[in-house]
Amino acid sequence: MSRRQQWERRYVRALVLCDLLAGSAAGAVTFGLRFGDEVTAYNRGYMVLTGLLPALLLAVLAVSRAYERRFLFVGTDEYQRVLRGGVGLIAGAALVSYALSLDLARGYVLAALPTAIVTSVVLRFALRRRLHVARSRGQSLRRVILVGHELSVIGMARQLRRERYHGLEVVGACLPPGHDGRGLGAVEIFGSFDDVASAVEHADADTVVVLSCPELDGAQLRRLAWRLERDEVDLIVASALVDVAGARTTIRPFDGLPMLHVEHPRLHGGSRLVKDVFDRLGALALLILLGPLLLTVALCVRATSRGPVLFRQVRVGRDGRLFRIFKFRSMYVDAEARLAELRHLNEHDGVLFKIRDDPRVTRVGRWLRRFSLDELPQLLNVVLGQMSLVGPRPPLPAEVAAYADDVRRRLAVKPGMTGLWQVSGRSDLPWEEAVRLDLRYVENWSLSLDLVILLRTMTAVVRSSGAY
């Protein structure tokens, strides 16, 4: 058994334990709150149901394929399958109760089952974060041989080094015949396309990634797959599509040929209506929940520097519509007038203006920015329908005027309080990378992706990296 298979099996066993724990905890807590400590003839049946809940949850998640390794480690497929399994479990409980005329306490069912699902998602998220931390330290990685042209290999190697949480470590490459690979730097060359099998053995690799190149046709790929199959080495064929998630792609056979069908992104329709309702209700709930904190921050801003508590600025929203964004004021009132004299100190590339030690920021403002507290009033923009909880960064009109045609795609959705840019480094990201993350979000939006980003935002705010 390879090292990859060993840590993957340990990870799946940990997932099973997490789900058993989620089911047990949700059942026990709900039973205690609903019936107390006393066991009676009435609640004895609920004790049995509480004991069965972990096994039922495990079975439903197994049927939903929430333990298949191709859906784990990165992406939102894992969480989507857990949520679908949870909906199926609740619907199944309702149908069984109706069919058998069982007098189930609705409060128990409507509390225990959703709690178990939410707890499972949270525990799986924590387990994945632990895996990503381990991967950043060089552990639990797949050893990858890249197969393709030199420029493609350079680009893929650079991207995999930047996003190590995907768990792919490049240990070598195979290039077309006649290429010496001098521009590959530290990536070791193991020969040409005919040497892939021997390269896997010499590099102790467990994964081969074939990049788009005309020299490798279907027959050659099939023979390569047969050779790798003997040693249980994974074969990945990289698509030429950029930042298109698996949920939008479907393999459809046509006369024996696998055709990749790409669906259009969900920018309109019912799914967007669900997102809008989720955003507004979520923002309204957060405003009520965070009311005392908002009042405290407002008092601190008012007491430490003259000027209004709220900072209002024109930003560009969906389809280029202008709106006024609300933020707690973190700068002195003459900040805009002093911008011209500080323009030469800009530390950010692209169209953004950022200075790590901006002299225009107040003492309280530095703390507000560090923990993103200055952005909380944007919940009002979300309630008004001008922004989303999750989306691309809300740009200034001057920034939009400098956009290239591709970058304008960011305006196809509402801007967000947080997004992939926020959880991936915020102001520390290069402009090109920030744009790529925003475009990836626009192309692959889903409600489960929003939930994952919101969870990752909490850890990003605590780390406060890139916040200035």
TrEMBL record:
Record EC number: 2.7.8.-
Keyword Acetylation (UniProt): no
Molecular function in Gene Ontology: transferase activity
Domain Bacterial sugar transferase, residue spans: 275-462
Membrane topology category: Multi-pass membrane protein
Xref: InterPro entries: Bact_transf, EPS_sugar_tfrase
Key words of the record: Membrane, Transferase, Transmembrane, Transmembrane helix
Location in the cell: Membrane
Transmembrane segments: 12-33, 45-63, 83-101, 107-127, 281-299
Family membership: Belongs to the bacterial sugar transferase family.
Protein name according to UniProt: Sugar transferase
Species annotation: Paractinoplanes rhizophilus
